[in-house]
UniProtKB/TrEMBL annotation:
It comes from the Bacteria. This is CubicO group peptidase, beta-lactamase class C family. Pfam families: Beta-lactamase (PF00144). PANTHER family: D-ALANYL-D-ALANINE CARBOXYPEPTIDASE, D-ALANYL-D-ALANINE-CARBOXYPEPTIDASE/ENDOPEPTIDASE AMPH. Residues 10-313 form the Beta-lactamase-related domain.
Length: 346
């Protein structure tokens, strides 16, 4: 696992956590930033980017279990009248969570708002009003084909918030973050690492118009607890049943399947559910395998670039753990500091 930070050029800090059977290991190294050199710990917060979507998918499953929404509800049933005049009945909550709704990757008009801050904070000036205006003018493709969409999952979060009559951020905290016990996870930028792109420090990531698609921050400790909740969830609570439901395959996406947001691949009778996330300044990867009681997450404070292999190496590490599952011995949780800091861009 120690080799993973080297696949993220420009990072100053990293955290990698693994669970297999009864054994947990958290590896941390480096500092929170060049100009803010605090040591990275298991509770250091990183920007999650699109890994936020997995939390939104779990929220959907939890609310569906409570019969507050139905996975097959047309999303327009949970929007104000006239909010999305061109969205037909085929654009359902489930299709938004599986990226099969036909919505484009980004809301119309976002590019114009993004250009002044393209290299640092492209979503910063695209707020709730801009999102509403984009939704009114959106005409999706016919539903059914996989088409990854930040816009779609952001809309899903808004629909769930409307159904519960609560802001999305509070709803997620009430139904997912607090019940699982994730004190480091939320939308505030306080206490987080400084993100870097090609070695250059960046301001905190802001996505005011699409929080459900990419606004969360979290720590290695919290994310390991979050993934562990998916490994053998109880069937006695809506959240436990929801953790099982998100892992069920629902749509085909090229060479893999999709559950509720999570990607799914199988090898030799073993499965791996996975998702990555990237902001301009951080990269995140998470994966779990219920049948082998395995989970892995990896976080660095460097944004994805063309040359970065961090997500691919993390994915390969997750499969290596799954393939050798059953050999790990039960042990107490351990936190280890990686001796050397992640490499910096020269």
């Amino acid at each position: 696992m120690e080799h993973l930070p080297a696949a993220a050029p420009g990072a100053t800090g990293a955290a990698v956590a693994v669970r297999q059977g009864g054994r947990e290991l958290v590896l941390v190294g480096g500092t929170t930033g060049r100009h803010d050199p605090r040591p990275v710990t298991g509770r250091t917060r990183f920007e999650l980017g699109s890994l936020t979507k997995a939390f939104t998918g779990l929220l959907l499953a939890e609310m569906a279990d409570r019969a507050e929404v139905d996975l097959h509800d047309p999303v327009r049933h949970h929007l104000p009248p006239g909010a999305a005049p061109r969205l037909g009945r085929g654009v359902t909550l489930a299709s938004l969570a599986t990226h099969t709704s036909g919505l484009p990757r980004l809301p119309p008009g976002l590019w114009r708002a993004a250009l002044p801050h393209w290299r640092t904070n492209p979503y910063r000036d695209f707020g709730a009003g801009d999102f509403a205006a984009a939704l009114r003018r959106t005409r999706p493709e016919p539903p059914g084909r996989y088409r990854y969409s930040n816009f779609g999952v952001a809309l899903l979060g808004q629909a769930l918030a409307n159904a519960a009559d609560l802001p999305y951020e509070r709803l997620l905290a009430d139904r997912v973050l607090r019940p699982i016990g994730l004190p480091d996870t939320g939308f505030s930028a306080s206490g987080q690492v400084t993100g870097h792109l090609r070695g250059r420090p960046l301001p905190p990531w802001e996505v005011p118009g699409l929080p459900a698609a990419g606004g969360l921050r979290s720590s290695a400790s919290d994310l390991l607890r979050y993934l562990t909740a998916h490994l053998s969830p109880p069937s006695t609570s809506p959240l436990g049943r929801a953790c099982r439901e998100v892992a069920r395959p629902r749509a085909q996406a090229g060479d893999h399947e999709v559950g509720l947001v999570w990607n799914l691949r199988c090898r030799s009778g073993r499965e791996l559910l996975f998702h990555s996330g990237g902001t301009r300044g951080c990269t995140a990867f998470a994966a779990f395998s219920p049948s082998t009681a395995t989970a892995l997450l990896a976080l660095v404070n460097a944004g994805p670039t063309v040359g970065s292999r961090f997500v691919q190496r993390s994915y390969e590490a997750a499969w290596a753990l799954v393939e050798r599952a059953g050999t790990a011995r039960p042990a107490e949780a351990v936190t280890t500091v990686i001796p050397s800091s992640p490499p910096r861009t020269r």
